[in-house]
C-alpha cells in the first residue's frame, strides 16, 4: 500500500529575504519587543530563573556550563538578532535548565532509574525530507513502541506541583506554543509536519538538555558552536539522552513492546556514537536525492530564520546548510558500515513511497517484531487519513537560497553513488 496524495498547487515562498508577517503575528512580535529586556542571554540569569520556577538548585553534572556559555556568546553575536529571537532563545534555555533540575531531582528520589533496563530501541536516522517523519509516524501508528509526543519532548518531567495533573499543563502549554508558531510561520507545517502537541516527535530536544547537539544551529548562524559540537565526542551526551529515556519510561511506560521509537537527523553523523550508547538498537537509515534534500532543508531554515535575525540572508543560509549537509552525508558514507546488517537497513525514499506498509514490515522484521492484524489496520488507516500533501506543499527552488542543483549533485555524488545507484528494493 503506497498511500494516496492530495493535489493542489505548491506554495512558493517568495519573502525569504524580506519577511511578511500576518497582523496577529505582528502583534505577538510587538509583545516580544517589549519582553526582550527581561530576557538576558546571561548564564547566571538563566540559571536563577530556572531555579525560581522549580524551587530546585541541583542541575546535575556541571560540565555543560562551558558549552552553554559558548552557545550564549554565539547567540549574542548574531548580526541583527531580533527581540523575538532573544525571547525564544531565553525561554528555550530556561526550559532546558528546568529539565536538568527536574531530572536530577527525580534521580535523587529514585536512584534505581539509572540502572533500569532499556529495551532495544528502533532508531530512524536521516536528513529532513527523506521520509523520516512519515516512517516514524507509521511505526508509531502500530502502537508497538514507546513514543515521544511533542509536548513531552519539550517538558519531559513535570514540575513538582503538576505531577499527575489532568489535563497535563505541559500539553496545554505546548498547544499554545504550536498555535503561536503556526501563526508566525504558517508554511512551516507544509515543510515539517507538526500536528499539535501530541504529534510523535524526535528526541533532539532531549539531547539539547546537555547542551551539545546540532539543534541549536538550526535557529541561525552560530559557527563557533558548530565547530565545538563537531570536534567533540558526543558519546557523553548520548548517554545523558539514554538516562532521560530511562527516566521517562519509569514515569510513563508505553508501547506493546516497551521499546522506544527514536528519530533524529543528528544520528546520521553520529552512527559510531549511536552504536556505542545503544548497541542493541535497530537503525533505519533513510536516503533521497541529496540536491533536493539540501534545497528543502536550506529553505526551511531560511524561512524560520526570520524569527531570529533581521534582515535574514537566505543565500548565506543556503551556502551554510549546503556545506553542513555535505559534511553530514560524508559522515554517513564514512561510518555507515559500523552498523552491521543484522541490525540496520537502508531505505530509499522512492522504495518507501512505492510500498509504505511493506517498508514498515521490513523494519519490524529486522527488529524482530511481528505486525499483528490490528497494528497493520492502524497503519493503513493512518495512510488513508494522512495522504501525501494533506497539509500543503512547498515549491523548493534552489535559486531562492542561492544554490544550483547541478552543482549540488556534483558535490554530493559520492553519497549518491553509494546509496542511490543500486537497483530499487522490491
Automatic annotation (TrEMBL):
The keyword Transferase applies. It comes from the Bacteria. Keywords: Transferase. Gene3D superfamilies: P-loop containing nucleotide triphosphate hydrolases. GO terms for molecular function: transferase activity. This is Sulfotransferase.
Amino acid at each position: 500500500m503506497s498511500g494516496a496524495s492530495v493535489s493542489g498547487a505548491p506554495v512558493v515562498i517568495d519573502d525569504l529575504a524580506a519577511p511578511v508577517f500576518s497582523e496577529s503575528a505582528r502583534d505577538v512580535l510587538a509583545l516580544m519587543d517589549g519582553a526582550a529586556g527581561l530576557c538576558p542571554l546571561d548564564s547566571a540569569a538563566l540559571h536563577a530563573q530556572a531555579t525560581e520556577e522549580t524551587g530546585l538548585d541541583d542541575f546535575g553534572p556541571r560540565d555543560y556550563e562551558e558549552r552553554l556559555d559558548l552557545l550564549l556568546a554565539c547567540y549574542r553575536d548574531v548580526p541583527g538578532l531580533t527581540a523575538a529571537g532573544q525571547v525564544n532563545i531565553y525561554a528555550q534555555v530556561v526550559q532546558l535548565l528546568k529539565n536538568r533540575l527536574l531530572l536530577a531531582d527525580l534521580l535523587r528520589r529514585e536512584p534505581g532509574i539509572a540502572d533500569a533496563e532499556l529495551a532495544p530501541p528502533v532508531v530512524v536516522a536521516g536528513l529532513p525530507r527523506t521520509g523520516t517523519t512519515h516512517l516514524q509516524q507509521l511505526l508509531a501508528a502500530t502502537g508497538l513502541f514507546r513514543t515521544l509526543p511533542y509536548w513531552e519532548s519539550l517538558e519531559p518531567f513535570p514540575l513538582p506541583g503538576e505531577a499527575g495533573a489532568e489535563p497535563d499543563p505541559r500539553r496545554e502549554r505546548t498547544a499554545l506554543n504550536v498555535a503561536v508558531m503556526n501563526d508566525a510561520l504558517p508554511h512551516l507545517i507544509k515543510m515539517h509536519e507538526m500536528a499539535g502537541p501530541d504529534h510523535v516527535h524526535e528526541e533532539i530536544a532531549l539531547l539539547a538538555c546537555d547542551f551539545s547537539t546540532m539543534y541549536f544551529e538550526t535557529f541561525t548562524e552560530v559557527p563557533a558552536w558548530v565547530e565545538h559540537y563537531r570536534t567533540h565526542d558526543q558519546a557523553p551526551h548520548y548517554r545523558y539522552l539514554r538516562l532521560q529515556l530511562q527516566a521517562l519510561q519509569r514515569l510513563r511506560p508505553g508501547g506493546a513492546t516497551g521499546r522506544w521509537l527514536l528519530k533524529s537527523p543528528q544520528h546520521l553523523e553520529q552512527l559510531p556514537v549511536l552504536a556505542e550508547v545503544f548497541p542493541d538498537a535497530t537503525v533505519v537509515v533513510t536516503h533521497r536525492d541529496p540536491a533536493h534534500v539540501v534545497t528543502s532543508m536550506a529553505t526551511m531554515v531560511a524561512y524560520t530564520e526570520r524569527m531570529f535575525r533581521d534582515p535574514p540572508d537566505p543565500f548565506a543560509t543556503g551556502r551554510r546548510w549546503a556545506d553542513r549537509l555535505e559534511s553530514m552525508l560524508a559522515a554517513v558514507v564514512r561510518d555507515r558500515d559500523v552498523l552491521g546488517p543484522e541490525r540496520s537497513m537502508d531505505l530509499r525514499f522512492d522504495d518507501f513511497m512505492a510500498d509504505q506498509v511493506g517498508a514498515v514490515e521490513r523494519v519490524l522484521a529486522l527488529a524482530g517484531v511481528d505486525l499483528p492484524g490490528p497494528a497493520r489496520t492502524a497503519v493503513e488507516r493512518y495512510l488513508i487519513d494522512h495522504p501525501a500533501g494533506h497539509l500543503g506543499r512547498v515549491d523548493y527552488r534552489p535559486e531562492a537560497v542561492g544554490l544550483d542543483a547541478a552543482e549540488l549533485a556534483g558535490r554530493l555524488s559520492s553519497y549518491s553513488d553509494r546509496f542511490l545507484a543500486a537497483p530499487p528494493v522490491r
